[in-house]
Design a protein that fits this description.
mainly beta, disordered C terminus, 0% helix, 97 residues, 10 strands, globular, disordered N terminus, 32% strand
């Protein structure tokens, strides 16, 4: 659902956000991570310090290779891909080893 071009990513709604590596996620079309921040479609941001906040504000541990939403449906499928329980999401770039 996300595409990267010129240092920016666009979501399925065409909304652009800066992206400088790291992991790009989508959960129900709401969130993406860039430069250590989580941004939703309304431009709200929250700092990520080893945690990811879902659309209900529930934080789960982000341990570099594993991401969970409040339903624990995020798993890392491979080093370069993150998939939700519907296998519909991939990272824009590789995870830290």
């Amino acid at each position: 659902m996300y595409r990267s071009h010129g240092g920016y990513v666009s979501d399925s709604w065409g909304i652009m956000s800066p992206f400088h590596g790291g992991v790009c996620l989508e959960f129900m079309g709401m969130f993406q991570i860039h430069e250590g921040y989580v941004a939703d479609l309304w431009g709200s941001t929250s700092r990520v310090h080893g945690y990811v906040s879902d659309s209900l504000g529930v934080c789960q541990e982000f341990m570099g290779k594993f991401v969970s939403d409040s339903l624990n449906s995020w798993v890392v499928q491979s080093r370069f891909m993150i998939s939700d329980s519907w296998a519909s999401t991939v990272s824009d770039s590789g995870l830290d080893s």
